[in-house]
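Q: For a teaching session next week I want to show students how multiple molecules come together into a single three-dimensional assembly. I've collected the sequence lines for a complex. Could you give me the predicted structure tokens for the whole thing so I can convert them for display?
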Amino acid sequence: MKFDTLQGRIALLFVAALMLLQVAVFVTVDWAITSIARENLATELDTDMRVFHRVNEVRTQQMTDVVRVLSADFGFRQAVATQDHNTVLSALVNQSRRVGADLMMMMTPQGLVFANTGGPPGEAFNQPDLMLLAETRGLAHDIVAFGKGTYRMTVIPVLAPLPIAYLAVGISVDDNWAARLTREGQFNISFLVQEDQQWRVIGSSRPPAFAHSLPGLLQGRRPDATQVFELDTIDGTWESVFIPLSNEQSPRPVAALLQRSLDENLKPFQFSRMVLLAVMLGSVLLFAIGAAILAGSLTRPLDTMTRVAALIARGNYAQRVPVTGIRELADLARAFNRMAASLAASTVSRTYVENILQSMNEALIVTDANGRIETANGAAQALFGYTGTELAGKPVSELFAETSINLSRQAAEAAAGGAQIRRVVRRDGSIVPVEVAQSTLSGDADGPAGRIFLLTDLSRTGNLTGHSEPRRMARR
Amino acid sequence: MHCHSLFAFGLRSAMAPVAAAVSLAVSTSILAATLEVTVRDAAGAPVEDAVVSLVRAGGTGGTSIAAPKPPTAPLMDQRNQQYVPYVLPVRTGTTVKFPNNDNIQHNVYSFSPAKTFELKLFGRSTTPEVVFDKAGVAVLGCNIHDWMLGFVVVLDTPWFAKSGRNGSVTLRDIPAGEYAINVWQPNMQDDDKPVQKVTLGADDNGKSSFSVKTLKPDRRKPTPSNPFYNSSSGG
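A: Of course. Below is the structure for the complete assembly, covering every listed component.
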């Protein structure tokens, strides 16, 4: 189907309109589905945050209970007071195994590590503020970097009854903790630390490639727990929210990043989306076929009229178009037929005029405005001995023996009142007397289109002096 | 460095009594000098429970002086689940009695280097005794009542006294000589330990005021209000 035809354009217009409508519907539905999915995920992330905090609190409480019991144990305090390193360390190892802690330490009031389940003693504990807080409040928590790891650490003083030492128990903030939280909370979580304005992943429940891509995606983003944001990662789109873990004043902020996959959430909608797309494409196809058929029924009468008009143009005035179809097209067909009938009644055919010209005994020559021959009938060709082709374009003045013949417009007008006797030169050089009648061929505002010469061969009539009545050609 | 050396067990201030110089306006009496010292905090308020002691210059103080023993053993009482007195200064070698005037038992202990001991659960029927034979501060606790806190300050000198609510102490019968005045209080800052000397002539009698830095909060915790804990003091 060609689209430069009415049929093609009608079909194209209808299909385009339908497609536009369907695209609008599809985009709207898709947007609505995605918006709903995002809202659901935001709600789920809010729940995840509460679950995370709850799991964290329970875990921290477990740790706290352990160190509280240990710190209050008289035997343990005796071991601490007597500086029995091996006994203290063994007690710490025992308690850390019971509760599943990743690190357990005991520090002196001066802040030196006296016993450490994760390394040698003697190292300075780098969180004096945490110890001070623990002494003031009886307990302190924070996310701290110690040794090669980062820990969620609980610190408690060992009182006898003044602080004689401090106990610290830590959960490593790493892949293991992230994996454990994921099992309990069904969400994805990554732990990040901000150093020199750059995020660094210290633990994640996601594959390493995913985790390594996070810092670049989080560049310049603050750990704001109130804002759910979207991250386009190497593994699809993820709705994300930060949970600050360290104290606000921490020079090395640590945060958890909770995430849920938008793509996973949209999966249940994918089948519906595909069905909708298939229905839309099918309807477009059906609509295109229907539009083509409808357009064909509309344009077929027009094609018929076009064909009949061409026949009429060739003089076949008897041709008519059928009056069928819808009212407007039937009216058009009727009007067309009336026009054809009118033409047949009022138009003289070219053949008819040609017959008249060729049947004349007088020579008829029609020139252009410059006096060059445009038309010469058969009598003229016979008079001068030239073919029509040879006469075409020849200056009419060359045909007359008198060089002084005035062929101007004024002369023609002057001669219009009657014929003149002149002599013309035939092709073979012989001179033939003729009676010449001239008329002006009407033109436009710039002047006449040419002149009409009607010549009567006097040599045949034998009347060299007689004047025949001037004859004029009827001009159409 | 051995790990043991890492410890001070929270008794930094106790192990290093603060010495302060005192400007004295002395007057002469027949027997010996008398020195009255008033201890105030940074705000000028009198400091209670401050132990003021004199240490003879160039020596340990009074070890060479045959000071008389107290007529009766000093008491570190337990009343209303608190140690009474809160601070008890004694001379080296003194036996301290620990009567229990509550109607519940107590388990007194100290992990301090000056004196490590434990008095297993005991009630009103017994009065245990402990000899404090090493200078320093013994921090007292109760193994079953964490809020109980007391101090026995063991001094190597016969010239000491504890301030009352007016923050003043009076030291008597001081032989002429050069001394350092030490002040210790449970809530003093760890770094508050200036030392200055004073020279006393025979029969001098003087007064002085002594300022300490802003004190730390009192570490004593209130007794639980649970009626089951409330014990009437037995006198």
